[in-house]
Amino acid sequence: MLQIANTVLADTKDKTEITILGCNSTPEDVMLYSAINRIEAESGGQIKVTWAVSKDRAAPPSATDPDEAVPYPWPHATGRISAALLREHLPDPGP
Description:
Blueprint: H1 2-10, E1 18-24, H2 33-42, E2 47-53, E3 77-78, H3 83-89
Parallel strand pairs: 1-2, 2-3
């Protein structure tokens, strides 16, 4: 997903809009959280990211790399992937 997002953003003529739904079992499983959020923030609205985990942590995490720190408590979607989750966070299908 990072390669696609970076390729789209590198071409100023490419106006493709990308929605990323990053789904993991737990917050500890999330990879590149800060990097992906940074790309979203710098995309000018061209890239939208939604994070979801099946379950949040039971307790705050121990010390981690602050650049890749995933927030506690989890501020994003929680629950298993379902049709309702997809409808809520992804755009409607095109023609």
